[in-house]
Structures are given as C-alpha cells and as structure tokens.
Amino acid sequence: MGVEGTAALTPEPVDSEAVRRAEAARLKAEHDKEFAAFAEGSYHTVERILRAACWDREVVQDALNEAYLHGRVQWLKIRTYTEPIGWVIITARHKIRKELQRRQREAAVAPEDLPPAPHTDIADAWEAQETLRTWLHHLPSRHAEVFQMSREGYSNQEIARILGLAETSIRFYKLAAKKRLRELAEEAGYTDSESRRRQGGSRGPR
After folding, report:
1. Cα gap 161→155, rounded to integer Å
2. Which of 53, 65, 116, 129 could form an S-S bond across to 144 if both were Cys, CB 3.0 to 4.6 Å?
3. What single DSSP character describes residue 120?
C-alpha cells in the first residue's frame, strides 16, 4: 500500500536557525565559564611575572586587563595552545612596552633612575618581596621575567616554551639574574650568610 506524492514522507519543518542560535549560546556560555576559570587562575601569576620587569603597577594592570579582554575574544584559538598563559604574558608585555615608550616620548626626557635598594634588615616576608622586586628592576627585563617565572615554579623547559626561547637562553638568563642579584645584595649589605659560610669553612649539602 503506497502514498501518492511526498507529503507523507516530509518531516515536520525544523527551525534550523533557532537550533544554531541555541547551540551558539550554549558554546558561548561554556567558553565564558572556561575563560573565567583560566583568568582567575592565572592573573596574579602573570602580574607577578610582569611586575618583575616593570615597576609601575598601574601600567602592568592596565596592560593585563587589555590582554585578558583581547584574550576572551581570541579564546577559541588560545584555548588550543599548550600554554595559554604564555599568550597573555607576551601580549601584556607588548602593551607595557608600547605604553612606556609613549610615556617616554611625552616626557621627552630620559627615564629617571630607579630608587636605591632598601638598606639593612628585611623585617618580614612582605618587605623581602618588595626588596627583591626593587632589585629585579635593576636587571634587563628579560632576565627579571625569566627569574620571576622560575620563582613561580616553572621549569626551564616550560619557560622556554611559553616565551618562545631556547632552553639554553633560559639557563643563561637565570644565571645572569642570580649573579646580578647577589651583587645587589652585597652592595646593600646583605652578606651575613656568605660571611658565615666563609668563616665556618663548610657549605653543607649542595
């Protein structure tokens, strides 16, 4: 028994545009949630890394906010990267550089000298962090950045991958940073531990 024509074989019309809109809304909500988690988990780490190379906290925060806003727009692509945090670091660093160049052009004078290193005792952990940050600003920006990333727990291989550099370069930057920081510590009078090692004649386990 057959049915004449195609009417009986045609399914109910589906609003394909509505389906597409619903799926797009679902994906957007999913990606918004995913990006929010990424931003919350990485923001302060990236801020510390960038502030190791730039003294001006406001400049760093403005650059970071711009980078994360741009990152949300580009999230579909960035989320596929092995190290999405590297994209944020590089993008924010570029924005910082442009802002500092703009300020320098407007000032039409050479940048002021960095403030001198704090003297004598480090009273607590906060002061120690501020002292180290001050010293980091005496280093080339790449050296300071790599050193801070190492302090954040990144391995040489991870830093190389994030910054797009050779691992040998990362090792060189870290060694150069440590050497310069030791010199700055000695200049500021922080030599007690070194003196005790020399006097005691034993360095202990290495």
Report:
1. 10
2. 53
3. S
- Can you list the pairs that 23-31 forms with residues at least 24 positions away whose Cβ atoms lie under 8 Å? 31/75, 31/76, 31/79
Q: Please, what is the average pLDDT of the chain?
A: 79
Average pLDDT over residues 110-121: 44
What is the average per-residue pLDDT within 143-157?
90
- In the chain, % of residues over pLDDT 90: 39
Ramachandran region, residue 5 (left: φ > 0; alpha: ψ -120 to 50; beta: rest): left
Question: In whole angstroms, what is the distance from residue 49 CA to residue 69 CA?
Answer: 19
Identify which has the larger pLDDT, 53 or 12.
53
Q: Tell me the C-alpha to C-alpha distance, in Å, between residue 115 and each of 26, 28, 110.
A: 52, 47, 15
DSSP of 48-101, one letter per residue? HHHHTT---HHHHHHHHHHHHHHHHHTHHHHTTSS-HHHHHHHHHHHHHHHHHH
Q: Is the pLDDT of residue 49 over 50?
A: yes
Tell me the residue length of the chain.
206
More confident residue, 17 or 45: 45
Q: What is the dihedral of CA 138, 187, 178, 112, to 10 degrees?
A: 0
